[in-house]
């Protein structure tokens, strides 16, 4: 790598005519961009990382927990470097409110999206796996990497050069000085709203406090999710009476019988040889593939109630109790909303939604309640007659 960079830099004096020859002239920033890319770490076959491949579908089968830290560290570093360069170019283009940028979509919006795509893709894959293939090892690396991603996100949303340029573009569109189609205008408005709600207009101590809140909220949300997952995994109910599983489909009987047998056999083939889905035992859990069909097909009212109560009270007691976390999230959200000029967090949340205001939400709920209650009462009577 050093050899390539030295060779490229050393060749500059030999090509001074590049800056004057109109047939061979190229922008100086392009050359420096190439130099910066050469200085980035080069992946070899031995350190291949699927999180750095952003084409096609995610390569889940190649993913390992050890891929997260190096990938996110590299991608956040690259993002911040590329974004800083992008801001510099925007400042060169944007000279005030009278600036008219040529081809604004390809000059501003498309580069802005491309810069963020690699990090967004890799973090999306990591976040998904943290939800569906959760382990303590993955939790640890996820928790360590999350602040880097949040900080990168704040850098983008709080960029004054980007915000000023987009504000100018939005104004030029309103004045008909620049033409954007309806979809493009919506994207520009969305960027501006995200920037405002991301703290771009805050300064000094208010900005510092806002950023601290963002980092803390990300940490709390992660803890909240982990507690719910732990509480879900901690619950189980073993049934031995065939009367308790009346009405359940064969697929659910098979799955719950395998779950019960797996407690005594680690080998999957051995587990399946030692089960009888019709005679049990059957192990129930709060995982959705078990919970939902059981609630739908079980003919045992008391068991349905037991599972339902367990499901809706997850993470409400013991080591996985989310009560204090919920209260802290609520307070921080209110403080965040106040810093951004909103009356409450509901107003902030609805700023990007169709409803527009809490009163509109309640109006819709009230209207839906009044119009659906009569039909629901009729269905209840039919069910009571049936059973």
Notes on the structure:
This protein is mostly helical. Among the domains are: 63-201, Up-down Bundle (Glutathione S-transferase Yfyf (Class Pi), Chain A, domain 2), CATH 1.20.1050; 236-313, no CATH class. It is built from 15 helices and two strands. The chain has helices at residues 2-10, 28-39, 68-93, 104-132, 136-157, 160-174, 182-197, 204-234, 250-261, 268-273, 288-297, 301-312, 323-339, 345-350, 358-386; strands at residues 237-239, 282-284. A two-stranded antiparallel sheet has the order 1-2. α4 runs antiparallel to α5 (136-157), α5 runs antiparallel to α8 and α8 (204-234) packs antiparallel against α13. The radius of gyration is 28 Å and the shape is globular. One of its GO terms (molecular function) is metalloendopeptidase activity. InterPro entries: Neurolysin/TOP_dom2 (IPR024077), OpdA_N (IPR045666), Pept_M3A_M3B (IPR045090), Pept_M3A_M3B_dom (IPR001567). Keywords: Hydrolase, Metal-binding, Metalloprotease, Protease, Zinc. Its cofactor is Zn(2+).
């Amino acid at each position: 790598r050093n050899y390539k960079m030295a060779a490229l830099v050393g060749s500059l004096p030999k090509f001074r005519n590049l800056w004057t020859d109109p047939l061979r002239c190229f922008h100086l920033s392009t050359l420096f961009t190439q130099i910066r890319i050469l200085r980035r770490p080069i992946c070899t076959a031995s350190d291949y990382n699927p999180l750095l491949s952003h084409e096609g579908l995610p390569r889940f089968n190649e993913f390992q927990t050890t891929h997260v830290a190096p990938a996110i560290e590299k991608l956040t570093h690259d993002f911040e470097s590329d974004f800083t360069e992008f801001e510099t170019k925007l400042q060169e283009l944007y000279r005030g409110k009278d600036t008219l940028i040529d081809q604004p979509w390809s000059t501003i919006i498309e580069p802005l999206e491309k810069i963020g795509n690699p990090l967004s893709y890799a973090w999306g894959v990591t976040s998904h796996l943290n939800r569906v293939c959760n382990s303590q090892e993955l939790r640890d690396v996820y928790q360590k990497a999350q602040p880097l991603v949040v900080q990168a996100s704040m850098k983008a949303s709080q960029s004054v050069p980007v915000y000023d340029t987009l504000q100018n573009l939005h104004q030029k569109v309103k004045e008909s000085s620049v033409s954007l189609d309806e979809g493009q205008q919506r994207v520009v408005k969305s960027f501006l709203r995200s920037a405002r709600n991301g703290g771009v207009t805050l300064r000094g101590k208010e900005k510092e406090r806002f950023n601290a809140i963002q980092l803390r909220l990300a940490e709390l949300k992660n803890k909240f999710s982990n507690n719910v997952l732990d509480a879900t995994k901690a619950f189980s109910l073993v049934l031995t009476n065939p009367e308790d599983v009346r009405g359940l489909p064969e697929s659910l009987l098979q799955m719950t019988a395998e779950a019960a047998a797996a407690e005594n056999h680690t080998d999957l083939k051995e587990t399946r040889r030692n089960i009888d889905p019709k005679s049990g035992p059957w192990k129930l859990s709060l995982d959705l593939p078990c919970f939902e069909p059981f609630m739908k097909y079980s003919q045992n009212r008391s068991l349905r109630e037991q599972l339902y109560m367990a499901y809706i009270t997850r993470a409400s007691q013991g080591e996985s109790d989310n009560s204090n976390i919920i209260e802290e999230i609520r307070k921080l959200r209110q403080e965040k909303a106040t810093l951004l000029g909103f009356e409450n967090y509901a107003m902030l949340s609805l700023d990007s939604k169709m409803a527009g205001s809490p009163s509109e939400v309640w109006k819709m709920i009230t209207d839906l309640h009044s119009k659906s209650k009569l039909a629901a009462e009729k269905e209840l009577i039919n069910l009571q007659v049936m059973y």
